[in-house]
Here is the input.
Amino acid sequence: MKETGRFLKEYRGTECLNCGVPLDIIDRYCHHCGQINTTKKLSFKDFFNEFFASIFSYDSRLSHTIIALLFRPGKISKDYVKGKRVRYANPFRFYLSVSVIFFIINGLFIDFDGFRTEMEDQVSDGKEAISEIKQNISTDDSLKLKINDQILAANGISRADKEKISEEVLKADGLSFLNKKKNQPKDVIYYSQKQIDSIGFFERGYILWEMYKDYYEKTEEKSAYKALSELKHEKNQFNKYIYHRVLKTNAIEENYGQEFFEFIFNKLPFIIFFFLPFFALGIWLLYIRKSFNYMEHLVFIFHTQTMFFITIGLSILISKITNINSFFNIAMLIFLFYLYKAMRKFYNQGRGKTIVKFVLVNILFFILAGIGSVITLAGSIFIF
Here is the structure.
């Protein structure tokens, strides 16, 4: 490498300025702490030369990682667990970088507002259809009622006599509750703070939810502080949290879940990041007879998942550019083939065993993905 700037031998010292370790004039860097062996004061030119040199150095490592990941399935994971790590990017950091970029780019193509508008139109059409059906039913019922009255009149029974007979029959059968009006508004009891404090924690949350929901529906008060003041409840964290949950739940209903799904989508890179260690645990059990430890399985998982994001991300971009939706299906087939080749290379097993474990790995993934989705949805309700 050509020596320029602060790397020139005339600027090298015999002692590291950072840690004080003795150095030789031929040492470009301190062998103890890694700092440049130079006594030259930092100049503007030197600063930018080193800045761009570090970028190109990382770029070289990045290019090695991408080329190995794309075209040599399983090799990068195998090299990494064997200790050949200098030329490759850190698998965990690289995964996070690619996943964040993937979801940012993908988010540009997902029209949450359009989805909400489409849902509103469908609900509006549904309401119109239901209204039309009700009108037809009402017309049919009116016609049936007239015919029924004519039949009763022919038999000498008036409508008043019929209603009286029906009521007596209901009472006799113990079904008088059917004669009550339907869809009566539910009476919500409003408790004082003293009464609430005497109730158990979980029951208290349910009671506050019902109370605050009823209060919001009647007043549409969006300020938790004002609502609690009006109800004469303490402005503690628990009460405010319950009231805010009522507001958020109502917002989900009003905008058809747009903000809720946007919230989950923005957290997906980190949700998947914390989900993958459990997936690696399942693979560790599947290959328990192999000599790989848990962290080595995790390295393999992060590499293959990174490849998944790259493959699907490219397919989405190509689909948007060409307006051909079949690229996604092609990308999925390519990734599945890639996963099979990576498993065979990394775990060094025959075709038969690899195919069986490939199927089991995919089944395990869908099971854990289902469980993770339920937990994510449930958890998001409490933190959204």
